[in-house]
Amino acid sequence: MISTLTLRKPSEAPAIARLILDGYPQHRVFALHGDLGAGKTTLIKAFCQALGVEDGTSSPSFAIVNEYRAANGEPVYHFDLYRLKDAGELDAIGFTEYVDSGHYCFIEWPELAGELLPVDAMHVKLEETANGARTITLTEAA
Question: For the whole model, what pTM was predicted?
């Protein structure tokens, strides 16, 4: 199933994130695809806000993964795989344990993870349009 949404300005990100989470309640792993500056981190911050994360959220560019706590006390994981060179580095951080945990995982630059992503991962593609808005295409892998 493919769905498409339009994000016209960053202030709409929390509403879009809530819409996605409510529309796909069975999904826990969200793989965010898009060019640099497409809005992946902005949307992940909005997902965290919708889940009640009160900690400051930022892209884990150097840490690879940040862990937050949702309002219900459950962990929320935010990955940024941009700097990794090969999938072997994912083994070193226990990537599959995270994505198989049943907790929310939001992954920037998921291409390197490839087959390590669960078959039911939700793929979220962000593309900038000519007027500066973002088209968000959601694809359920399973």
Answer: 0.92
